[in-house]
Amino acid sequence: MSTMQRFKGKTVIVTGAARGIGAATARRFADEGAVVLLVDQLPEVLDMAKAVGGHGLVLDVSSPDAGKQIVEAALAQGGRIDVLVNNAGVGGSRRLQDSDDELLSRIVDINLLSLMRITRAVLPHLPKPGGSIVNLSSIFGLVGYPGTTAYAVAKAAVAQFTRQLTSEVAHQGIRVNAIAPGVVVTPMTAGHLQNPSYVKLMVDSTPMGRVCQPEEQASVIAFLASDDASFICGVTIPVDGGYLSARYIPNY
Question: 3-state DSSP call for residue 239?
């Protein structure tokens, strides 16, 4: 638990907050004094909100009015909005030739278009200066990996969206950044981590030689959203144990 209170008096929105990185991030912000709105389509987000001392909203982020509902809920709870963490996402990608239109649309909509629509709704309410947005990209958005086409392309677009939005709002004092997680212990990766081939390609080749815990991602998100990162803007930071920088061959 953090002993800092960097977000005391501030309101933070975290999407995809029922489990994994989102839940750990919500807890981190709550520990640092924020009023936190946890958003997820899973009803268990209400239990997670109660556990971290935040407020829960059961909502499909891909619904057309999701941004409006999120803004209204955040303002009702905190009276203001200071930070938006766009964490909600979905996996299930396949190779392009095995991806039908429905799969492509679903993955791109939830991982990219919903993020853009929610951000558009929240932007007018962020303090200028002082607002912060942290997006969740992925190492798969920065390097090729077979079988993840729609997901990888959407996450690559999230990194570009981070740069693009920076060019549009940084002059107002709103900072936009992203992280690109490597392999993290979450429900989304649980099945993959039972696959020896995946472990060999993704875990054994990570220089730090292990998977990441959600709390390790949350700490970077909180840093980027805080005044400690006051001159960091428009970047996508890999949080991947060195995977992108120096893929490792065991026993080389």
Answer: strand
